[in-house]
Amino acid sequence: MKRKIIQTSDGSTTIQIEDWDECYHSKHGAIQEAKHVFIQNGLALFPGQSIAILEIGFGTGLNAFITFLEAQQRDQTIQYVGVEAYPISKEELEGMNYVGALAAEEHQAIFEKIHNGNWEEMMALSPNFSLTKRQQFFETIEDVAQFDLIYFDAFGYRVQPELWSTSIFQKMITALKDNGVLVTYAARGVVKRSMIEVGFTVEKLAGPPGKREMFRATKKREQ
């Protein structure tokens, strides 16, 4: 499928799949979306805690890089696992402007390491942040009670409804520890029903720029 790099409304870049009219991040602002959905409504729930994060849809590495920056600022220990079936190309990576857009030039080498490091191997990006990239289909995830937080950033339901199915969310709730949280930009009724069916408690929250709503789902500890 034909792909191209575009600039989003906040000046940061993303990749657009033209055949689907689908982007890796919001056209209304890639960085703004990442910070609103995954940091403000996800990571911020765990202040000062040592946590494990699973990202579904590693893509451009933007969410991982922003989380790394947040971990340094907050002095928070994070084990980060990013799952991606189809890694982006070297040329696409070179077209991403996140380091400059985030005014994070001092961490240019970290952003490069995020992408150039080996898959399936844990990398220590700093004393308090480790990253493991796993190249696999979401359907093959078999983690059990390993994560405190899931960033669910798959392509949208409109183009890949199978990634938002009950069977996928069963894998997600299984991968979470008790009281673990899943956050996503999505807010479709069919997605909410699938989450509830597997046992999530679902909240509807204000969405990022250009989107009215988003979901946060919690795996409540069994009484």
What structural class is derived from the secondary structure elements?
A: alpha/beta
Named at the architecture level, the CATH assignment is: 3-Layer(aba) Sandwich
Report on the biggest sheet: 8 strands, mixed
Q: Which CATH first-tier class would you pick?
A: Alpha Beta
Report the mean per-residue pLDDT as an integer.
Answer: 96
**Strand elements, count:** 11
Spans where pLDDT lies below 50 across 5 or more residues: none
Number of domains: 1
Q: What is the H/E string?
A: EEEHEHEHHHEEEHEHEE
Oligomer: single chain
- The Cα radius of gyration reads 16 Å
Shape annotation: globular
Can you tell me the CATH superfamily? Vaccinia Virus protein VP39
How far is it from the N-terminal to the C-terminal residue, by CA? Answer: 48 Å
Question: Would you write up a description of this structure?
Answer:
The chain has 223 residues and is α/β, with parallel strands linked by helices. It has one domain (29-218): Rossmann fold (3-Layer(aba) Sandwich). It has seven helices and eleven strands. The chain has helices at 30-40, 62-74, 90-94, 98-101, 108-116, 166-175, 189-198; strands at 3-7, 13-17, 22-23, 51-56, 78-83, 122-126, 129-134, 147-152, 176-184, 201-206, 213-218. It has an eight-stranded mixed beta sheet with strand order 6-7-5-4-8-9-11-10, sandwiched between helices. α1 (30-40) packs across α2 (62-74) and α6 (166-175) crosses α7. The model has no long low-confidence stretch (mean pLDDT 96).
